[in-house]
């Protein structure tokens, strides 16, 4: 049987087909199911009464809380993305030649592997206006604003961006580091011999060389950022008011407090489309930078 | 003929028939109980072990589930029509949705079965009425763990300030303001400010709401959360918030009690079942100075706590309903109470709460339960709670005043309920 395919070009595809099909089934089935669900008025309290319903998407367009949760999500995502990219790249650039930095690697990746629920509680203590370490340190440098930033509607997003940055900067650093170590040493030496300044070397050689890694890191951070839920839930539950209510928290409330699963599915689809659009855009950037 | 007989024997063997037809002893019926983590599980585990050891007919397997996710887990499982639990635990907030959806089995008929329970010995009347809401006259659950809100206070601080134990909401506010001294690391009180139900801001607000004469819905079932009494209650609650740790807007019941145990708070209102942790010298700096009193009387002349309770029910889809009933009847039986109390639970039985040797917090719970009030038996209740929790959080954050917050909450609740 296999002999017949032996010289066929389709043989490799045949071998990977089961895995691809399985993967498709696992990832595509929930999305298709959710899409179909979004055209129903399924309420978890009365599942037998579910009917076909086309009103969820028009309702979504007119729901101010959904849009405000989207704005909160975008602010949080962009804030976290910008800071982690900047700090991760800076630390990688500063440390990739230092041997001690390699030894510190296991410590540096600790925040990345910490459980989000534990981190939420950890930061609740760190931010405490009574005995929090952050208050103590900020007071030392006379920068303490006089309140816990996670408890004020105007500053709660900053407190979440700080946690996001603390957790994901090592991840960006690792990816950029991997790009930096792949730049040939001879190239760097040649540039130095030619008299290029540090800034020029960074701008014209190093950053273009790691641009693929930077784009990939931004892509991963985007996927992670748009899924934000656990830490926010653990720290503020979306409050004060709705100041830190990101879309996934609103979806959770719609599904499991309002029990309105059909509408929650429509909200989830909208978030999925947005995340997909942003990810595809970033994938194009990754592909383009790799081609260059 | 012989071939046909052989075929029947083979099919019988394959189907496992001999285990019945040859008279081999049938094993115990296995049931699964969904129990929430924390004190509910701490109590259920030893009592369940005792039940399993005491008879050979039923074996109970506990599935421990965080209380924060048990509701969604149950609702999703029920909506598929194939839930995996025979017995489930739920809070007062969850009960209306579960019962109105028809997911729970009525218990009345089982209590009439002498082969399942000795009804007289079980003594249903031993449970406070406020914890036994009936849906269309039928009983769907047995109260498992209770803890109406009571007042906890630091005796040393009150005495040093020459203050008596507050018995009214006015005295409570006066004591809170007098002892509030954040510069010295002492707050007058602490709130459960975080958005949420039982562990969060709504349930902390309700006793003040009720004691000021307000309610969530009125006697006709109309939304009443924006009544003048409710607005006055929220203004009072927000004033308490101004004399509480500024971080309290993110505090659930746990962190609020921790700030009390750390010695930073003078008086607080919280669930009676927190008494054990306050008295634990390993965890609490105030173990020797903490005291408790009934929830202060409000303008209506009484202190009305929330009839907060975790209950157990039988799933309508259970295939072992009789076994499930035997289990819950044992779990809440008088016979199981010594084990229950030893494990640290606050049982909903009046006879235990008022026993001469009961801890003082038990007696206060019993007192509180006499006037305690539940939440509306509305299948949208949990959604109403979410709407109110957001507006309470807005008010606590200073984004809205009391009247605006409650009017916005009421408008949204009326929109979804239609009244």
Notable features of this structure?
heterodimer, A: 292 residues, mainly alpha, MetI-like fold, B: 419 residues, alpha/beta, D-Maltodextrin-Binding Protein, domain 2, 2 domains, five-stranded mixed β-sheet, three-stranded antiparallel β-sheet, 19 helices, 43% helix
Question: Helix-strand pattern of chain B, N to C?
Answer: HHEHEHEHHHEEHHHHHEHEEHHHHHH
The CATH architecture of the largest domain in chain B is 3-Layer(aba) Sandwich
Task: Give the low-confidence spans of chain B.
Answer: 12-24
Query: What overall geometry of chain A do the principal axes of the alpha carbons give?
Result: flat
Q: Biggest sheet of chain A: strands, sense, closure?
A: none
CATH evolutionary superfamily of chain A? MetI-like
Number of strands of chain A: 0
* Spatial order of strands in the largest sheet of chain B: 2-1-3-8-4
Quickly give the CATH architecture of chain A: Orthogonal Bundle
Compute the gyration radius of chain B: what is it? 24 Å
Oligomer: heterodimer
- Rg of chain A, alpha carbons: 24 Å
Overall tally of structural domains of chain A: 1
Number of helices of chain B: 19
Global mean pLDDT of chain B: 90
Strand-pairing-aware structural class of chain B: alpha/beta
- Biggest interface between chains: A-B, 33 and 37 residues
